[in-house]
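Quick one before lunch.
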Amino acid sequence: AWSTTAGGAAVLRALDAENGTTRLVGGAVRDALLDLPVTDVDLATALSPAEVTKRLEAAGIQVVPTGIAHGTVTAVTPDLIIEVTTLRRDVSTDGRRATVKYTADWREDAARRDFTINALYARLPGGDIDDWFGGLLDLHEGRVRFIGEPLQRIAEDHLRILRFFRFHSRFGRGAPDAEGLAACAARANDLMALSRERIRDELFRILVLPRAAETLALMLALGILKPVLPEIVPECVPHLAALAGREAAWGVDPDPIRRFAALLPQREGLGAEFGARLRLSRRDTARLDALGVADPALPGDPFTAAYFRGVDVARDRLLLLGEDARAAWEALADWRKPAMPVSGKDIIARGISAGPEVSRRLQRFERDWVASGCPLDAARIDDLLAAALA
Ligand code: ATP
Ligand code: MG
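Model of the magnesium ion complex:
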């Protein structure tokens, strides 16, 4: 359907898709064949990046040279973003990145892709499929199979270990391909050579999938994560499964940090420990800390958590806690942070001289007031203020 959008059609026309010079490839073909929504669109083309750029610009389409060294040009249209990559083959690899050469041979371009289901090309507008490695049958039968020899393909790019489990989680039916699985298990240590960011991104993509718990259990049984995250053990998986079940039942979208928190042993300082190791953003690190149910900075009371850490974090904590927390989770749905009814001026008016003592007293009042459920009637506020000044 994307090719009928104005942007898609214009790009296809400019790149001569009708003659097969440019074809749809990868995830978009696979997902369309399964009637799944297509999110990002990749095109493979026999044209050089310079020719692609020239033709798109001549058609008035905005072009960004995203990965020009790797042959990728991005076409930005009003309705979607399309990556256009010139046919290439890998000439050398070191497990992390490949040196590529352009080629005129479609099959060579297909052969450097990871799995057979990811190496299908669709000619548009007709929709004829090029399938050199049996990807259509594999897709139909729910099989994620490496193109070529799995051990060699993993040696070329270690990230394929994690991609194998991610695609199996999404598209696999029944037991995973035995040869691929054995190769992933044998080469798990290779993951250590990858950047933490790449491991994290791939792992987080697995974590938000519907079958994440099942896939994690499989990975842990084979020792896939041991070199990178030894603290995640099979006993952690039921927590992830339970969280995923509650998310579905309570109508919450899966979130990688929340799911990761469910998988970790519950102890203080999760953010500090894993944030640095997985190069999490500052915000994700803070969230992971706050989601550690054992976080000592937060009392168990959900309203206090909502007040000091934000309502989303508070609700995530409850979601992680379990079924018993559902009432409190629902009670927080419409919660708004109330404004403090007392300021430094009120403290000073009661005889505390200006200085650090004022903010100490104010903080004490705030803590007690929040713990009492943020009452707004004057008498209660007065009592709490008197206690804070005692
Ligand atoms: P998703 O829906 O997750 O985006 P996708 O198949 O589009 O799935 P991408 O990571 O976007 O996956 O990559 C696009 C295509 O590029 C893949 O379908 C595959 O053909 C190829 N590809 C991506 N990463 C690799 C890799 N590490 N090794 C070989 N081929 C790869
Ligand atoms: Mg994609």
